[in-house]
Structure prediction request, 384 residues.
Amino acid sequence: MEVPFIDLEKQYQEIKEELKEGWEKVFKKGNFILGEEVKYFEEEFAKYIGTKYAVGVNSGTDALFLGLLSLGIGKGDEVIVPAFTYIATALAVSFTQARPVFVDIEEKTYNIDVSQIEKVVTKRTRAIIPVHLYGHPVNMEPLLKIAKKYNLKIVEDCAQAHGAEYKYQKTRIPGHQSTRKVGSMGDLGCFSFYPTKNLGACGDGGMVLTNNKEVYKKLLRLRDYGRKSRYEHIIKGYNSRLDTLQAVILSAKLEKLDKWNEMRRKNAQLYIKCLEENKDVVLPREESYGKHVYHIFAIRIKNRDKLCEELRKRGISVLIHYPLPLHLQKVYRELGYKKGDFPVAEKIAGEILSLPMFPHLTEKQIKYICENLTNLTNKVQLKV
Prediction:
């Protein structure tokens, strides 16, 4: 049996009629750049997440980059980032000429270890980027307290967590519901619509969400050459706009997102049921404060690379998210970090393994994956 890591064809089948109708309207009007469909999707997505404003941009990386710029972050500033995440999180900081400052992660969720943050706060620290990695929310309540204490901005990286929810455990934030979607709790929520995401376009795309009207206005200018009118430019902006055709796709998919997320959660529970007796496998967990949307179903296992090779021989597509923590990447050698600085991130990077996960993954496929995984972990050569 061949099991792809992700299969988007069935998603397309569910929305193809809506897409045909929407695309035809765009082609007739010719409004391919910042058409009214973009504004419509921005309003839809802001309502879904629970913020006042949303600005569509051309990627999740630009969402973070322009978001940081909109908060005034730049040269000489420091921004706290987890050591274990996709490199775009740190690059967005670097693009502003600020310095990423890395913090280790929790072993149980793979998210930033909030208890380590205060140790690296300096007079130059301006913001924290919590990454809701793999679809599990960061523990936001204590993070928000730290941000308030040190007057820091919170820029949520929600690239892998569309629809994930956080439940406040101890206190109610004034004006907030006890349960909030990720992207609605910080100063900014930044999303990617890369095709493989829980809510993915047919190309690149991103979104920045905020409740701050002035930041919203600045973001509108930053994404579109800094213009006030067609040929009047008042700030140095960028060409970073969400295409109208992508907005049509995303609007159609947004109506299915909750359903598809529940399908992911059901698939995750089947994985867990099939693998919970396997003592060689560390399964993902869902903390009491979070609703996991399983963008990635990541297990941990010893001798990971050998196992990957054997699974692929059996037609099972697996990936590694991510094999090298940010502080050990060559591109960030200048920051002076070394091996051993963030032991949890390094440990996870050596053991993490992503199994196929998408809404329409079948029970038969999951059982095939789990049977092969169990059989392989029982073999002597896969033991450490």
